[in-house]
Amino acid sequence: MSDLSDEEAEEEAEAYLGEYDGERNSEGERHGHGKAELPNGDMYEGEYEHSLRNGQGTYRFKTGACYIGEYLQNKKHGHGTFYYPDGSKYEGSWVDDQKHGYGEYTYANGDTYAGEWFNDNRHGQGTYIYKETGSMYVGGWVNGIQEGEAELIHLNHRYRGKFLNGIPVGRGKYIFDIGCEQHGEYIQSEEDKGRKEEEEEDPSLLAAPKWKVTEITKLIHWMPNVEKEPSPSEGPPAAAAAAEAAAADEAVEETAADEKDKMQTNAVIDESAEHRDDMPSLHKVSSEVFSPAKDAEVEDEETREEENEEGEEYQGTASLEDEEESEEAE
After folding, report:
1. Which stretches of the chain are assigned E, i.e. beta strand?
2. How far apart are CA 111 and CA 131, in angstroms?
3. Which of 74, 104, 181, 257 is most exposed by smallest CB count within 10 Å?
């Protein structure tokens, strides 16, 4: 971020100097819309009030910087956009010539910050996006430094925890896109703790804390604990359970009744088939359809008949062989 305090000081000092073309009041003061070309090369075009820039205006610096926005008594105040010579830009709220409130800053290297400002510094809640890596910091800021609860989001994982002086400290967790979380704590070595008091004036000299893993768990999906109220038709849970049990009993009774009807139908069909010689196949068909047990008995009987036939055939063959042997003996 460029420092234009000198240029803005010149802007303040040259407020009443230079050529002016515009409206004036009865006292000859610059009042209303006007255009001024200052001796230092800067130019302003916009609203004046009692010779002070007041209202909407555009101030162009000879360095290439430019401010387009609101003024109050020669100071940037309200909403405005400042274009810096290095290509960076701030668009947002101003108070007393300083970035204050909500604003969005685009830096020369492509990084962006969108969030709260206080006295020209990132302060409060904000989101900083690193263009080169695509990483994103979402959380607290104090006087331009990452501090407080925050989330550092990378391409395939993220860290959620507390930051101090721009680095993570204390307990936190890494959340991976593969579906697990790594819980742990950032701690400083004993050597770093011993030097901490000596280097309090320059925290950047302290070594980065080490990450210590405590456990790895599955990804935890947070769901709101909302109890569903039963509708009038559903009734209380006990009544619903009783209704389900009654429905199950009724289904069992219907099944039993169906089985009884089927058995009665089998009996009627079998009886009618026994008394009708002109339909010998009816008993067989009804057995196949309604009485698989009887069909098995028929198959067993047929098997036994076949075995008997085979036995009789074997016995007949044996008798014939005996007769032949007797004849030969004679």
Report:
1. 19-24, 30-37, 43-49, 52-60, 66-72, 75-83, 89-95, 98-106, 112-118, 121-129, 136-142, 145-153, 157-164, 167-176, 180-187, 210-218
2. 5
3. 257
Per residue in 25-47, pLDDT (tens digit) is: 999 999 999 999 998 999 999 99
Of the candidates 217, 153, 159, 154, the one whose C-alpha atom is nearest the C-alpha of residue 186 is 159
* Whole-Å CA distances, 115 to 59, 185, 266: 25, 28, 84
DSSP assignment of 276-300: -TT-HHHHHHHHHHH-HHHHHHHHH
Which residues make beta-bridge pairs with 26? none
DSSP-derived 3-state class of residue 157: strand
For 168, the 3-state DSSP assignment is strand
pTM for this prediction: 0.60
CA angle 314, 315, 317 (to 5 degrees): 65
Dist. CA 262–CA 290, nearest whole Å:
8
The tokens for 288 are 């196949």
User: Which amino acid is it at 243?
Assistant: A
**Domains of the chain by range and CATH?**
1-101 (2.20.110.10), 109-225 (2.20.110), 237-325 (no CATH)
Helices (H) and strands (E) in the chain, counts: 5, 16
Rounded to whole angstroms, the Cα distance separating 211 from 188 reads: 9
Q: What is the pLDDT of residues 97-120, one digit of tens each?
A: 999 999 999 999 999 999 999 999
Tokens of 170: 């204390």
Task: Mark out the alpha helices in 108-236 (DSSP H runs).
Answer: 190-196
Exposed, middle or buried: residue 162 (CB in 10 Å: 0-12, 13-18, 19+)?
A: middle
Mean pLDDT of the chain: 75
